[in-house]
Amino acid sequence: MSLFYSLNLTIARRFGFKSKSHKFATFVAIISIVGIAIGVAALIIDTSIMQGLQNSLKNKTLTNVAHVTVKTDKSNAEKLLHLDNVIAVCPYIEDQVLVQTDKTVGLALLEGIDTENLMLRDGHSLEELKLPFIPPKGSYNLNGAAAIFYNLDMRLNSRVKLISTTNARYTPMGLTPRARLFKFTDYFASTHSNAICPVIGNYEDVRKLFYLKGEPSSFRLFLHDPFMLDKLNDKLDSMGIEHSDFTATQGDFFKALAMEKISMIIMLCLIIVVAAFNMLSALAMTVSSRLTDIAILKSLGMQNKKILSIFLTVGLLSGLTGTLAGTAIGIPLTAVISNVMSMNTAMSEIPVSIEISNLLLIGFGSMLMSFLFTLYPALKAASSNPVENLTRG
Questions:
Q1: Residues with Cβ < 8 Å from 10, sequence gap 6 or more?
Q2: What is the pLDDT confidence band of residue 380, given thresholds at 50, 70 and 90?
C-alpha cells in the first residue's frame, strides 16, 4: 500500500509539475500556487491585525463600561457570583446627570461603584477587574473620561454642579431637581464609543446626590469574557431578574467592527478563489493532454479510483504548497507590517494577535477550496474511455 501510494505521488508530480511537453499547464499551476500563497498570507495579516484590534478595543473600551447591570435584592447578589462567566459582583449606581460649569452645561453618565462590598469569585483578584481610580468617601471628587474635559472646556480640579432629576423634590417653586457641587480631580482615557462621557464618583457620594436610601437594589456584574453574554442573559431571564448589558451602548460599535472584519476576509478570500480557478484550468489542461497516458495506465490495470486519487493529489499538492508558503510569509510579515505602521503613526503600537485557531481555519479553508476545484477535472480523468483515447493516438 505504501509502494502504491508512492507510485501515485510520483505520477502526480510528473503529470502536474514536470511535464516538458506541456509547459503552459505547468506555468498556470505555478501561478495558482503563487495566488494561493498570496491569498493565505493576506488573510493571516488581515485576521491577525483585526483580531488584535478587536481584543485591544474590547479590553480598553469595556474596562470602564458595566458588562451587565442587574436590579435585584442584596440577598440574590451572592447567587449571581456563582453564575457562569461572572467573576465579581458589587453594588452599583448609574444615571445621567447634567454637568454645569462656569461656561457651559453638558450631559454625563454618573457611576458609583461600591468596592467595599465587592464580592470576588475564588481564584480571581481585584487587579483583574482593572477598575479606574475611585475617589474616597465624602470627598465629592470625580474621575471623568478625558473627553469630558475637552467637551466642557474644563481643567483638573474644576468645580462643577451635578444636576439630577432622580428623586426630584416638590417645592413651592415646583418640581426641583437635586444638585450638589463636585470637583474633577482625575481622568481616564476616553475609549468608549458612546456620545455621553462616563464620570465615576464615590458610591456613597453618588447615593447622596440621587437621594437613594436603604439596601442596594442595583448590582454590576464583571464577566470573564464580556462577549459571552447569551447564556448569562438566558439564565438571568429564567431567574426573573431585570438586567441590561453593554450592548445597549457599545453593541453597534463592536458589530460594525465585526462586519468590517468579515468584509475584509470575504474580499481576500476572492484571491484564493481566483487562484483555485487557475488550478482548475491547469488541471483541466493537464487531463486533456494526458488522455493517452491515462488510457495506457487503465489498460495496464489501474482502477478509476486510483486515477482519481492521482489527479486529486496534483491539486492537493498545489494547495498544500501554496498554503504552507502563504503561512510562512504571512506570520513574519504581520509583525513587520505592525512595526512599520506603529513607527509611522502617533499610536504607540498597532495591536496584533496571531491565533492558532485562525491559522488552522485559514489553512483548512484553503485546502478545502483546492479539493473542490480539483474534483471536477479528476472525475473527468477517472471516467475517460481508454479505448477512444488510444484510438485517437
A1: none
A2: confident
Q: Nine-digit cell at 267?
A: 474580499
> Percent helix, strand, coil in the chain (nearest 5)?
55, 20, 25
Tens digit of pLDDT for each residue in 113-122? 998 888 888 8
pLDDT at 183 over 90: yes
- The answer, yes or no, to whether residue 169 has pLDDT greater than 80, is no
Q: Is 349 helix (H, G, I), strand (E, B) or coil?
A: coil
What is the 8-class DSSP label of residue 195? Answer: S
Give the H or E element holding residue 251. helix 247-289
Q: Comparing C-alpha atoms, which of 166, 202, 167, 163 is closest to residue 179? A: 163
Q: Grid cell 484550468 — which residue?
A: 281
Q: What is the pLDDT of residue 253?
A: 77
Are 202 and 136 in contact by the 8 Å Cβ rule? The answer is yes
> Model pTM?
0.71
Q: Percent of the chain, pLDDT > 90?
A: 15
CA–CA separation, 132 and 129 (whole Å):
9
Residue 3 pLDDT: 36
3-state secondary structure of 172: coil
pLDDT number for residue 215: 80
The confidence score (pLDDT) of residue 343 equals 64
Tell me whether residue 30 is exposed, middle or buried, using C-beta atoms within 10 angstroms of its C-beta: 0 to 12, 13 to 18, 19 or more.
middle
Q: For residue 122, give the DSSP letter.
A: T
Q: Give the Cα separation of 194 and 176 in Å (integer).
A: 28
- Looking at the predicted structure, is the pLDDT value of residue 314 above 90? no
- Per-residue burial over 183-213, b if 16 or more Cβ lie within 10 Å, else e, is ebbebeebbbbbeebbbbbbbebbbbbbebe
CA atoms of 200 and 207, how far apart (whole Å): 12
As a whole number of angstroms, the distance between CA 92 and CA 71 comes to: 10
Contacts of residue 154, defined as CB under 8 A and 6 or more positions apart, other chains included, come to 101, 148, 160, 184
| pLDDT over 70 at 140, yes or no | yes
Every domain of the chain and the residues it spans: 2-59+255-392, 66-245
Instruction: With H, G, I as helix, E, B as strand and everything else as coil, classify residue 338.
Output: helix
CA distance 371 to 110: 57
| Pairwise CA distance, residues 146 & 159, whole Å | 16
pLDDT for res 135: 92
